[in-house]
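For the sake of transparency, this paper describes our internal protein records without simplification. The tokens are whole numbers drawn from a learned vocabulary of local backbone shapes. One such record is reproduced below, unchanged from the form in which we store it.

. . .
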Amino acid sequence: MAKCVKCGQRRGKRACPALGDQICPACCGAHRVREIPCPPACRFLAQHKPYQDRRILERKSAPPQGRGGFPLEDDLFKDERLTWLALNIEAPLAETAERTPAFTDGEAILALEFAKDRLTRGRGRIIVPGEERKAANSIGEAVYLSLENCRYDRAVILVGTAEGYKVEDKRRTLDRVLLTARTWAGEDFEGRTYIEKLQQQFARIREMSGPSKIIAPK
């Protein structure tokens, strides 16, 4: 039996459609979605995804630390640059909620966690030709792209212009948004408490901003 295409040590017992070769169960479980762009049709993804999603949803978020080790919730929204970054992180979630009334808090949290994982592992993620557009979590990918493409200008706020953000700022702000989402959702991952708060927030922003708007990747 062939060696695992990922570790090269254990036996490859599963046919990986993303890598086009055999992969061992350990690498399949450790790297699926995170580093391997698993197609939705993969039976191993479908078999284990509900369990993995539940583990992610039940993960507890620790208050993200700001400068000097103080909780970020004390300083994030006093920094207009990070506030703008947070809005761009949440923009794809708000747009999805408008298009899909059944979009839940749990799905929003999974998208944010996916974006966080992409931020951490993105540069080491395996991309197979023809598979780059088949994100395992398309909403999470949209959040990640919005996070990566966000720029800030004190006078005119438009994505793609002015200064960018350091990776640490992205991580801290994403952690803060995740903490907010988990706090509002509580244990009701099928509910929409966080989503409804988000929609109200963006409705107020639209009323105040006039023609200016957040531009999220499609």
Observations:
- Residues 14-57 form one domain.
- DSSP finds seven helices and two strands in the chain.
- Strands lie at 14-16, 21-23.
